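Dear support,

I submitted the protein below through the web form. The confirmation email said the job was done, but the results page showed an empty box. After a refresh the structure appeared. I'm attaching both so you can tell me whether what I see now is the final result or a partial one.
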Amino acid sequence: MRNPMRIILLALCVGGLALSPLLVSSAQRRLRNFKATGRGVAPGDYERTITVGGRVRSYLQHVPPSPNRGKPMPVVIVLHGGGGHAEAIAETSGFTAKADEERFVVIYPNGSGRQRNRLLTWNSGNCCGYAHENNVDDVSFIRALIGQVRTELTVDGRRIFVTGFSNGGMMSYRLACELSDQIAAVAPVAGALNFEKCDPVRPVSLVAFHGTADEHVLYEGGEPKRRVDRNPRTDRSVAEAIRYWVRRDQCAEGVEQERRGGVIIEDYAGCRDGTGVRLYTFEGQGHAWPGGEPWAGWADKPATAVSATDAMWEFFSRHPKR
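What the results page shows now:
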């Protein structure tokens, strides 16, 4: 019999994203229109599966209504936080509405765990939970997912983007390192570049979002102040991640800085192959998706001055792969 206290601790995991029962039930109620029907080609919402490395993996797929006839569509892959699942990050980020507005396909993959589609994590390097402990090959999963989507839908291969929150943000950094042949840009939210073997074969654009008061994934790096999961870790700082990608993308020296209330935006231009690097720093914000919904009843309140979903789509739309 499983230890009930361990299950409670996993549910409260702050190394990534954990969800309250109230939010889970809310997400289920609002997203119950996802159906395991057909190949997901027509506009609508679909539950999809794919077998990778002997594991049956799952994801939610939203195809926008009235797609441009015959015109290849961009794809945005949105990764949940540690302890979360696909339905919850769809709720938190609001990306389905954005996909309908801008006519792109949005994919919400599920990580792995001991329970089916609950308390799931990503193997992002030094974190988190089940996926990290069992060395789950999440890179191969996302590669296979992209291949399946490209086979079934009319997809613009130059406009495949990845974002993620917390542990999902860490995973988006890792995918930029290991799937640079597929991905045009990534947008980590409250994540950290903790993957040691980062050696992308092609330039990848990056836009990051992080709060200075985040105690789960510290802006300045280090050990989290709020965590109860059993695997200790030390996160790299936001500044280290930005410096790495500015150097890797061979951006020009200097940075343009803009302030919008409590939000500082740093822009690095003149990068290789039309790529770009941008950082949104939210003064005083904790562990949250800016402009989105709180990921749990007790979670930090998201900032409202800038919507991360709107800002990253604007960045994505200007940075296709060349």
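Response: this is the final, complete result; the empty box was a page-load delay. The chain is about 25% helix and 20% strand.
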